[in-house]
Every structure is written in structure tokens, then in C-alpha cells.
Amino acid sequence: MERLQKIIASSGYCSRRTAEKLIIAGKVKVNGVTITDLGTKASLSDTILVNGKIIKQSNLEYVLLYKPRGVISTVKDEKGRKTVVDLIETNNRLYPVGRLDYDTSGLILLTNDGALTNKLMHPSSEIDKVYVAKINEAVVPSKIKSLENGVMIDGIKTAKAKTKILKIDKKNNTSLVKITIHEGRNHQVKKMFEAIGYKVIKLKREELAFLNLNGLKAGEYRHLTIKEVRKLYNICQ
Predict the structure, then answer these.
(1) Which end is more exposed in the chain, N or C (fewer Cβ atoms within 10 Å of the end residue's Cβ)?
(2) Bigger pLDDT: 97 or 12?
(3) Model confidence at 44, in pLDDT bands (50, 70, 90)?
(4) Annotated active-site positions, please?
(5) pTM (two decimals)
């Protein structure tokens, strides 16, 4: 059983917010009965009509996208910029799981499976996210090491992280640092480096849990296998 507005949104008919407005307005019927209570649940065996039209649940779809820089991690953008959804050919209404900044590239998942999205996004799941950051100077190893115990950003200390210096280019005064975190705070990686005096000039998410970008170029995507979906569910329990 799922909330009615979730079933309607997953069908691709409209967004969940719009579905809620339609329910309140008495535009939705379940098995011939008009529903106005947002707490109402239904199943796929029920006959659901929206504005007199029968809807069906979309097949669940799971996409791993290599997001390029300069793409928005939303379904729509008020400024008309390209979004992650624009890069995927599908008849389903997909949503990104979390976000990557406009100028950050790398791995992002999109799906219409709300249950899995909630599990992956919940802080208790502690899903590892691996980033590679290009820093604007030759870093000091001891300062990078300090990130592992957490640093204060926005008045709150971050959880412990893992770090590894991949390269220090003294000639061009840049560095590459791999950092693994499991939180998802706003601009977290950039702010963590800022907290120790460094500026991130390029950022890429290379891994999420056991998933990676192997075989993909920027802008390309693939569908997750059933085995991968089951594994994601298992690590969120």
C-alpha cells in the first residue's frame, strides 16, 4: 500500500504536490469513491482515476548518470538550464537521488522508486560518497589529514572522513585529493576544504556506495541491474 499522491506521481501524470492538490479538490477517485484525504493509501490493484482518467503505476527504473559540469541536478530549472533529466531518454518520471552542484561532475542516481530514494537519503544509512577534488595549491599533508576527524562548517562538525592525496603538482601549484564522506550537507566537500584554508577548483563524485563510473563518459548513463538494486536496498537496512 502506498499513499495515493505517491502512486499518482510515480505514474508520471503529475508531480506529487500537484497530485495532493487534485486530491484535495476532489478530482481523484479510488474504486469509484472520491478521495479528499491526503493520508489515503491504495495499491496497484485498485482502480485510480484522476480527472476521469485511469492511471497506472510506472515500471520502476534506476539510472546511473555521469553528470557533466554545467548541468542542474533537478527535474526543471527556472533559468532554462539543462537538467539531469534532460540527459535521459525515458517515459518514466525520474527524480535525482540527492544533488551535485552545477559545477560538480560525477555519479548521480535517478529513479522513480521513492522508497529506495528515502532509504539512500536518510542519514542513518551512512552511504559512502567518494569525491576527487582539485585544489588551488600544493596541499600540506597534515592539513588534509585533519579532515579525517571532522571540521566545523556552518557551526556543525562534520562526521569523520577518509582522505588520500593523489597528486601534488608543485609546478602548477595544484593538488588532487580523494575524500570519502557519508553525509550530504550543502556544498559539504567544498566547505570542508575551505575550513582548512583551501579552495576546490574542480570536483567530481566518482563513487556512491559500491557503484562507480566505469565505462561511462560525461553525459552517458546506464541502468542498474536487479542485483545492484537489491544490494542498495540491503546496505540501507
Answers:
(1) C
(2) 97
(3) low
(4) 101
(5) 0.76
